[in-house]
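Inverse folding, one chain.
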């Protein structure tokens, strides 16, 4: 069995995982597109709580179809989180600021010991009970998405796509630099 050149090994080591990341990104985009195609019916949803397992907290909307209640988390397109620190022996800053911009990006600025609850987050973002359209699949109402301001692709998908393309490009460059084949 012939030995592989350094360039070929680098192309395989970087280009292979890069192609896998590109395929994952395409799957993310395809899933979003498929959900938007399937969800042709609309119900009015009501903001029932914030999900604090996400940072920043994501709003959860409750909607009803044919007498059955469903909930759907509305993820942010992106988020910017900034933590400030308190120096000295003073008390920790329990305050925070949270807001959403026109690109559906949630900004969270907070101190080291901030405390968020449904009540204080809903004062800054959307109040509990805020109404928003929920698009769902008539054949399976549990498949749904909450309206967003932005129709741009998800930032997560773009990050994975660009990482994959970068690895493939780096593998190709190194293949030619170190003389592949």
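Residues assigned per position:
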């Amino acid at each position: 069995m012939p030995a592989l050149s350094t360039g070929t090994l680098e192309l395989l080591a970087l280009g292979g995982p890069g192609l896998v990341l590109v395929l994952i990104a395409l799957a993310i985009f395809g899933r979003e597109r498929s959900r938007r195609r399937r969800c042709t019916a609309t119900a009015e949803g009501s903001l029932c709580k914030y999900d604090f397992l996400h940072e920043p907290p994501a709003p959860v909307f409750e909607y009803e179809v044919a007498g059955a209640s469903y909930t759907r988390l509305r993820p942010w397109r992106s988020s910017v989180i900034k933590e400030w620190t308190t120096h000295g022996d003073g008390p920790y800053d329990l305050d925070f600021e949270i807001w959403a911009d026109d690109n559906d990006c949630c900004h969270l600025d907070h101190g080291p010991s901030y405390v968020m609850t449904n009540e204080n987050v809903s004062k800054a973002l959307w109040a509990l009970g805020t109404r928003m359209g929920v698009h769902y699949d008539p054949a399976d109402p549990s498949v749904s998405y909450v309206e967003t301001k932005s129709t741009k692709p998800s930032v997560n998908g773009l990050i994975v796509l660009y990482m994959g393309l970068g690895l493939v490009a780096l593998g190709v460059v190194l293949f030619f630099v170190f003389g592949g084949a």
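The mean pLDDT is 81. The CA atoms of residues 25 and 159 lie 8 Å apart.
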